[in-house]
Design goal:
alpha/beta, Nucleotidyltransferase, domain 5, 8 helices, globular
């Protein structure tokens, strides 16, 4: 089974896969209002898809703070607009909990940037790209891993959009939710393939 994941997938093969996005419930939090249901779901989930977004920079020396934190469970995806809110302490604790797996691609950078916004001792993070490298898999980015492990194509069109907007567009919400959801699904497939 592992050998099938070691075969490189050319771009034309990825482009031929069905374009897929997360179709489940997405909850966007522009502030720290009623987070109780989200927190209850997140603290009981053993594997959480994890990603972040920031407003892109187009000038040298320009830098914007982290704008969005995306967390995916088996039940829903939660989008926290960090540019407009402060995360409650329980979510900071979740980022420090080694028993809760937070999984994504290039998580080292995401964690470093998230620690500029909230204080936590990072624990329980799994970088799917690093797992792929350890097993000599030919692809390490989220789009390629989704193609290889899930047999789907995910869009990266909104990647450089303005994540600091007051109201996210439907396209941004779908993109952000899909990235977190896909990370969790890839993690589960890697577990089933005994790569984790």
């Amino acid at each position: 089974m592992l050998d099938s994941y070691r075969q490189p997938m050319p771009p034309e093969a990825i482009n031929a896969l069905p374009l897929t996005r997360y179709e489940g419930p997405v909850h966007v939090f522009p502030d720290a209002g009623d987070l109780n249901a989200a927190i209850d779901d997140l603290i009981t989930e053993p594997v959480i898809g994890f990603d972040t977004e920031r407003r892109p920079t187009f000038r040298k020396g320009q830098n914007f703070p982290l704008s969005l934190l995306q967390l995916a469970t088996a039940n829903a995806v939660y989008l926290f607009q960090l540019c407009r809110m402060t995360l409650p302490g329980v979510l900071e604790s979740l980022m420090s909990d080694p028993a809760t797996v937070k999984t994504g691609v290039a998580v080292h950078d995401d964690v470093r940037e998230l620690r500029e916004v909230i204080l936590f001792d990072a624990a329980g993070f799994v970088d799917l790209g690093q797992v792929a490298r350890v097993h000599n898999l030919p692809t390490c980015g989220l789009r390629n891993l989704a193609a290889n492990f899930l047999g789907i194509r995910i869009s990266k069109k909104e990647r450089c959009s303005n994540w600091g907007r007051e109201s996210l567009t439907p396209q941004q919400i779908a993109y952000a939710a899909t990235d977190a959801w896909a990370s969790r699904e890839i993690h589960l497939r890697m577990q089933a393939a005994k790569l984790l």
